[in-house]
Automatic annotation (TrEMBL):
Residue stretches making up the GS beta-grasp domain: 83-176
Pfam families: Gln-synt_C (PF00120), Gln-synt_C-ter (PF18318), GSIII_N (PF12437)
Family annotation (PROSITE patterns): GLNA_ATP, GS_BETA_GRASP, GS_CATALYTIC
Ranges in coiled-coil conformation: none
PANTHER family the UniProt entry points to: GLUTAMINE SYNTHETASE, TYPE-3 GLUTAMINE SYNTHETASE
SMART domains, per database record: Gln-synt_C
GS catalytic domain boundaries: 181-617
InterPro entries in alphabetical order: Gln-synt_C, Gln_synt_N, Gln_synth/guanido_kin_cat_dom, Gln_synth_cat_dom, Gln_synth_gly_rich_site, GS_Type-3, GSIII_N
Protein's name in the database: Glutamine synthetase III
Amino acid sequence: MSLRSEALKNLITGTETPVDSSPKITAIFGENVFTLATARKFLSDEGYKSLLASIKGGKKIDRAVANQISNGIRAWAESKGVTHFTHWFQPLTGTTAEKHDSFFTLKGDGTPIEEFDGAALIQQEPDASSFPSGGIRATFEARGYTAWDPSSPAFIIEMSNGKTLCIPTIFVSYTGESLDYKAPLLKALEALNKSAVEVCNYFDKNVTKVTATLGWEQEYFVIDEGLASVRPDLVQTGRTVFGAAPAKGQQLEDHYFGSIPERVYAFMRDFEAESYRLGIPLRTRHNEVAPSQFEAAPIFEEVNIAVDHNTLLMDVMTRVAKRHKLHVLLHEKPFAGINGNGKHNNWSMATDTGVNLLAPGKTPKTNLMFLTFFVNTIKAVHDYSDVLRAAIASAANDHRLGANEAPPAIISVFVGQYLAKVLEDIETRVGDKFDEQDEAILKLDLHRSIPELLLDNTDRNRTSPFAFTGNKFEFRAVGSSANCANSMIALNAIMAETLKNFKKEVDSLIEKGDKKEIAIMHVIQKYIVESKKVLFEGDGYSQEWHHEAERRGLPNIPTTPLALDAMVTEKAKHLFESNNIYNHVELEARHEIELEKYIKKVQIEARVMGDLALNHIIPSAVNYQNKLSANIAALKAAGLPESHFKAQLDILTQISEHLQIVYTRVDAMVEARKIANNISDIRTKAIAYESQVKATFFDEIRYHVDKLEHLVDDAEWTLPKYREMLFLR
Ligand code: ADP
Ligand code: MG
């Protein structure tokens, strides 16, 4: 019996994993998090105040207080049965990393004790040599350290065989270069805070802090684990490199609002409960468009926390799925021909006075404040669309962008009819002076149209990579498996820079004698004119948009190696350096790491294709050919004329043709890889992997393999088919 048929049999006879009846969410929420409320209980006054000051105002915690805090955290963790702790960080590999240490230690005289001192809380030295550093460690010092990020609370991960205390940390080299996603993210958020507060102060002197907010929507597929585990491509690359389209795909669109299957539902309830314990405020769960595709979304949070929660969730989902004998696919394009996975990043900014800066306000003043941040966002996306594009570039996302129901690689902004009209009105006032009496402009009457505005937004924004959705922008082109820190670093950085320049321009008009509001209106108008070509309200999936975008001069870079160029332009260096987010060494290192990741991913996919072709596809095809030829020989021997085995001969011929092509193309692909491997310049090598390996061979080989799948006896086919993975659970 083939592994495939065994997996199918187990799937059909398998039993369900029972789940505890759903606990009340409020009863378990944050149970495994060292929240401020918990800190209040477990810390001394001094410790608590110091922690609070560090969270709220970024104040440094001194060593003595750190000892008190670490003791409090240990007491809490031990009360929950924790024995080990780890510095939890987000290296550039795209996953999370942990190195577990136990509280257990021996005193000088050999007495065993449990200990977790302030030094262990604040700093650790994982062996950094195996994490990507893009040559930084080679150039500088070979070691790095993790450092506590007090703004993200410690939490406890529960595994079946133990509990671990996780301390969120940044990961930096000894020479200070960041080696992870969190360090630059914190810097970008700080840059935004600074620029945004200054601009807010035009309108409200009481604003002292601006926090960027993020609400992600995570899409994923869930399939049977047994079936997934006998697909070497899913195991090794996260996507199916082969697989013929099933008779029924998503054409009926019956999955979207359908009911959630029992087994998946049990899994959801289970991972949600675990997420709630970790303080991840999940709110929605629903089916997505493709069969077996779902989405989870939380209530939005401050960006740093939201990013931690998203990486944690991806981890929790993957782990909990195993308990239900399910397999979660977070890849951007697990199955060809049907929708891929995205991770929409809903983003806005909030002041410490409680104002959402992207919510159209009710009074003229707040309207103008809204308009300022709204137009600055459009201007930022216009000026730095290449930087945003680079931030979402990956081998996996290349499969999705521009494919089925996915935004194109062209970055444009959707604002909705109503706001498009508002912008137009402001723009056409050229020559016309904005004067203080101009109530109409300052008021804009935005508030009266809000319901209309939201209606207008529900549907048509779906095809836009960057859409305004009523009180936030939604960056829809982010890869589902990506760490959303990368897109958030870029977005907050470009916003920080744009606001900074905005402030300069407004100030200089004020100096020349303009009244503040008038100066602001003038710069807003200028920005609208300068950035209007990035606005697009039509169908982003259409071919016409590609032509139109080209006419407008908007970049459309479909492949990662070239999209990444935008990370190291003079413009990008200035952007990131002047806002203290990356220095040029870090940028170049990151550029190199991304190229390296790209090359490796394509290389692995190519190898997996070769492996599957030679060890699965061709053997299955040959077995069936043997059956057919034996049959033909027997019929011939029995004296039947050829007209009676023409079908068999025809199938045999077709199989031979496809099989020969698969074999020779796989062989040629190996040669192409050898040539690419000899290229020393990493960018040229990545481009070669894209054009000479991926683009030249992947689709072609797949085409013939998928033809074989249609021709070969189902009983001989060893790989689970799309119809099985997508519809059985
Ligand atoms: P829709 O996708 O239909 O607009 P919601 O309005 O509920 O649905 O929002 C979707 C996501 O946007 C949720 O994750 C939500 O938390 C997030 N979101 C809502 N408001 C904000 C905000 N001000 N900042 C960041 N994210 C937000
Ligand atoms: Mg949405």
